[in-house]
């Protein structure tokens, strides 16, 4: 329904509105639990007038959705400029041509109303209340369509949804990953216990509705946790992973491995990061927090050797396969905490010419940063998804012999407040 009204219209040409109209108004709304039961408590939510999205202000994402895209970019530019000003100049932010439907990873939580209607959507921030979502302007459209149809299948197969508060029920979440270039689609069905009734018929029915699905995985998560995926997995259909292409390389992506959510912007980000590393083919490179090996593998033909480290064992397995798949022989992978690994390298008297580091949102830690200083690379290329923790880590590195040369913000997350930045540091006196 909203596709015609919102998605298509605004993909073509987002309407830039008068600034005054973005000003938010306060609306009093009653809270409902997953069964549609009115709760006594009332909550004030800030809702923008005539939002592009019917659940804007309720789901907690897309804080900037109703702001013209140019203005979003300006806001992010300003934020990064301000935070990094003590360290270096910030170049112009790299934006998207079409800032909609970019998310290749889509998650929906399942529940039901009091009348038994199955709903799927997103938790209202900090609660177990499900905000029903049919489609989302930043998510892949195929993923949203699959999730809607799974909702209908649950009804026909009489499968009960899981209740986070009581622990009763079965069906918890769906995770869909799509390959932007390959078109491959992974569907992960997350259950509270291992048995999916009429499993084969369910898979058959889902594949009939969506022949584009290339793999279906059953994941069991019986823990009271905010984590979506549990430990145990069974492949119900296909290979159990998808592949996608980035910067001319093929990457295998498993359900639990990290993969950047915006493929179009990731290619720009990686190209910029590798350009800033100024590789000549002679360098010993470290790719820290390497995920499925992407940055190091893409940079490998410009370096003598690459040493990659990552904590998640599934991602390391993918990375090893990815090196083979792309015929790359000068990259080695280690499964370890990046700080511990770097400290070991430093203690063993090893060195490196260039360090790529791409830590999670919380940034790096002193163990890692002090080891970087000991390893004494000529250049450090820091890829960050939070300019606040980037600024904190730059403070450490610039106090310990490094100078930040430039920073480039990349808009990986349009419509949200988040911004990615790649920052290059040079060793002083090198
Ligand atoms: C922002 S992702 C970047 C991954 C990869 N560079 C990419 O672009 O796809 C951060 C990665 O760091 C990993 N990670 C988190 N904490 C870590 C740690 N202490 N040591 C090593 N890797 C860690 C995560 O599993 C994740 O794969």
UniProtKB/TrEMBL annotation:
GO terms of biological process kind: rRNA base methylation
Source organism of this protein record: Blautia obeum
Coiled coil: none
Family note: Belongs to the class I-like SAM-binding methyltransferase superfamily. RNA M5U methyltransferase family.
Record-linked InterPro entries: MeTrfase_TrmA_AS, SAM-dependent_MTases_sf, U5_MeTrfase_fam
Active site annotation, chain numbering: 385 (nucleophile), 385
Keywords attached to this entry: Methyltransferase, S-adenosyl-L-methionine, Transferase
Statement: the UniProt record of this protein carries the keyword S-adenosyl-L-methionine: yes
One MF term in the entry's GO annotations: rRNA (uridine-C5-)-methyltransferase activity
EC nos: 2.1.1.189
Residues noted as binding S-adenosyl-L-methionine in the record, renumbered to the chain: 260, 289, 310, 358
Keyword Glycoprotein: no
Listed name of the protein: 23S rRNA (Uracil-C(5))-methyltransferase RlmCD
Organism superkingdom: Bacteria
